[in-house]
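Summary for the lay section of the report: proteins are chains of building blocks that fold into shapes. Here we show the chain for FBXW7 and then a coded description of the shape we predicted for it.
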Amino acid sequence: MSDFTTYLPPELIDKVLSYLNVKEIGFFSQVSVNWREASNRDSVWLHHCMKNGWMKYGISGSILHEEPSAKPTTNISGTSPHFDLYGEYLNEEPSAKPTTNVSGTSPHFNLYGEYLNEEPSAKPTTNVSGTSPHFDLYVPFDTRLSPICKWKHVYLRMYHLTRNWEKGRFFVSPTLRGHSQRVTAIDSNGTCLVSGSEDKTLVTWNMLTGSKIYTVHCHSDAVTAIKIQGHHIITGCADSAVRVFRIDNGDLEFSLFGHSGSVDHLGVSDHDYIISAGSDRTVRVWSSSERKLLRMFHAHTDEIECMHCCGHMILTCSWDKLMVLYHVENDNPIQVLEGHSEAVSCCQFDEYKVVSGSADSDLRIWETSSGYCTHVLEGHTGEVYCLVYNKHVIASGASDSTIRIWSHSGECQYVLTGHLGIVRCLYINDHRLVSGGDQKKIGIWNFKTGKLMNMVHRCPSLLHLMWVGETKIVTASPESTGTITIINFW
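The coded shape description reads as follows.
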């Protein structure tokens, strides 16, 4: 029987393969070298990356260059996120390999149709689970197979990463200790972590190695807010100043003075505007290029609890029970949103909607353009501490120890339980919801089904701040001395 891949044009072969799922493509590719080559095409794997919402990782290329973090001395989870070429984990042994293979390479087949002609490298001795914590896609140099195509490589890595999040395969890096008092602010760009503390210092860390890069000592009071923007670090301080540093060496470029109290919230808009809100109840818009104040808003009568920026718009929430919407180029507020009966503690917005949470236990959905409240979301029995939303759902965390998943029309879909004490932090993307709360608990949830995928019970410290990236969770402890924990899923 003739081999159809030798006479059909590539477009028709791609059409045939488009009817197969990933596992079936794997079986297809183990038949022969020709069939493996036919399936190792970007046009085949791009489709599967699109189905899983992984397009952005191939476009940015970040996942293709993501390096594993330094190997830990212990593995807190008792498992490991290491992925071998088989698409399996090293503590799950592959079945015995047959002795012949028509492709001329080692016959062992994984989910993706890749082969090995030698064993994986030796397992490290520093991981108590007996596995290695990093992704290692080994391809022998002397194979006659072509290199793995870009979008197949993206699929391999994202499948591995997604499984790590779902199954709780992680390790905890050694605790970062660089502050003598409580950590009050953190931010990261994925490779560099910046932390500020009540000890008046700013510390920059290498997230890959967990090592300290440098410490900045120029603040005269506690560092209260941090924002990384491009090649710069912006800080807010209890001494009323906004400062801008170079991220590569920590040199101070300039300072902005004008607030009469602590600068508690920071934001950026359009790469030139720096937005600050302080205990003096004012919101200020600064030009980073001109290094001067452009405009000031004084719309609140009590302290500002939360600030969120979107495009050229700014939203602030306050203890005065109000939310105020501003535009960076307008001298007066655009909208004042009034309806909560207690302090407004958290918010998020875009050009269409505003979602707010309050100490009155309710969430509210508002129209951004009119300021009209369209829905009141009732259900929590304690103060709402945090909220996030994406295109699918709204998630809120409260002092009643629950997380509620809401539709954008205001219906409660799920009540997630498992936390003890206050749910303090939430993060959401298109694939998962991450929650952080009291008693050192961090939850990884499937927000579409309301199911808990895994609970990170063994986080070594309490948390009051959390940053989540594609491969890591960073938490800061509220205790003195201030410590930072990095949990690695790669």
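Put simply, here is one thing we learned. Residues 173-488 form a domain with the Methylamine Dehydrogenase; Chain H fold (CATH 2.130.10.10).
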